[in-house]
Structures are given as structure tokens and as C-alpha cells.
Amino acid sequence: MFKPSSYSWCCWCHVPRVQDHPTATVHHLTHVPENEEEKELLAFNLAQDLGAGTEDRPFIVYRNPHETNRAALKRLRFVCMSDTHNEIGKISIPDGDVFVHCGDAVKHRTSARDLRIFNEFVGQLPHKYKLFVSGNHCVCLNPQQPEQSQKILNNMTYLQDQSIDIEGVRIYGSPWRPKRGCFYRAEAFGYDAKRIREDKWSKIPEDIDLLLTHGPPYSIRDYNRSTGDQLGCPALLDEIVTRIRPRIHLFGHMHSCYGASLYKSEDNEILEGDHMKLNSNNILFINLAIHQGKTFNQPTIIDYFY
């Protein structure tokens, strides 16, 4: 489990580095992260069953894995993305029921102006529901005044440590990440790594279908190619796999790790410990980061049956 000793600290800029924390074993469904290419974890049979996250082959996820008769179930289609950094107008956005953006819609230097432009753009989309979780570039948003952020983003539902029920599907959104040092200017919603679990992640309810954050959990699509580190949050990983257990976790932040991975309890006995529940804790993790420099990834499509 997460403890302050999970981190070592780079003293000159106070950047946390994870040490001696169990990593998650996952099956990559799309886009194997570059730091894991040699592990050959791509599960072709799982990918065939779950889909590819495209408009033609959306990911298919059931609230109850044992109830898969689609004709007897309700469905919501989620159209999901993150890290568009002022380029959302260049992306083809399919129609669906719920538009999801997991943060960094703008760049930090011009966030106050561009977040309003982003809000206007999203207001023109046809989706009935629109959800937004802030990212580290949204430095114009005051974490102490979420009601003011909601006024700025009035064409969508702004989620800062909040739940929302959409036609019976329960979703929770939170923008926090372990904070870096003063060297980093795009540092909105950075939080003390020693306190983030108790103050933030422990407050996430257990009865949710989808979890939205900006940053990834530790060891799941969180690789930073410039430093060679995995920069996800150990406390978030522990809470997700031992207590919260959502069906889907959506995030972004680490641009080069775009793609989807499936977590299965049976592969993670060391990580889950006494909380292990075989065959009851499959979680679809998706890094939604769109912006790839001069190129763009596509939105991820999920059909959720419940």
C-alpha cells in the first residue's frame, strides 16, 4: 500500500520519484507503450472481445460482466479525449451521448483566454452530456472556487471531486496529481504526494462506473520518455485496485502513452494483497491524450451497457 516512503525526492526541484512500489500487470489492447514493447503484453483475444475504441469498433464494456445481452440493457456511448492543447478544432469528434475531456484543453500561458474559446467550441457539439476534468495547464482555474470554474465552463459539467449520475451511470471526476516543484509552471492542481491519498483519493466513492482523472495511476501508461520514469500516482493506483474498482478509468497527461490496457485481478496478487478478488476486478484503463506534437490521436469511443 502507498506510504510516504514510496517516494524519493529530487532536492533541487522537489520532484517525487517513485521507489519500491509494486507495479500493475496489464494487457495492452491498443498502442503498446514504448517502455514495454519487448514484453509482448498485447492480448489479441481480449482486443477482439473488447473492441478497439474507434467509432466503427468501440470498446464494449458491461457493468455486470455476466449480463451481456445487449438487447436487454441500456447503453451510453462515451466520446472521450484529453490533452488537446488548443487544437480541438482540428479533431474529428464523433457523435455520442456523453462527451468527456480529461484536462489540458489549453496551454498554460494563455489558459484564461483559451479556456473560454474551448467552452464555446464544446457548446456547439451535439452530445447531450459534456464532462470536463481540469489538467495541470488550466492555471487560470482556482481550486478553491470550483463554482467559478463551472461558470467559465458553462457549456459542460465541471467535475472537481464530484460525482454525477447520467441516466443511471455513476461517474466521478478529480483533477489532482502529485505536485512537482516550482521549476514547473504548468502545475495547476498539483497536490502534496504524502497527503493526496488521505485528502483526495480516499474520498472517491466505491459505487462508481467510471473514474475520470487528469493524471494516470502509477505504472499504467505513465511513462515519461524524457526522464525514463513512470510518473503516475501510487496512491491512486492502490485506491483504484483495492477499493474503488470502477469498470473504467479515463485519464491523460502522459502524451506518449495514449491507448488502452485491461487490468485483471488474477494477474496482480502482489499489488492487491488481502484485497484480492479473483474474476471480479477487471478494469479498463485508457490514456486519452490527443496531442502528439505535429500529429493527433483520435477520440476514444466506449459503449457502456448497464
Automatic annotation (TrEMBL):
GO molecular function, one term: hydrolase activity
Domain annotation Calcineurin-like phosphoesterase: ranges: 77-256
Membrane-spanning ranges: none
InterPro entries hit by this protein: Calcineurin-like_PHP (IPR004843), Metallo-depent_PP-like (IPR029052), UPF0046_metallophosphoest (IPR051693)
UniProt similarity note: Belongs to the UPF0046 family.
Identification of the protein by name: Calcineurin-like phosphoesterase domain-containing protein
Protein species of origin: Adineta steineri
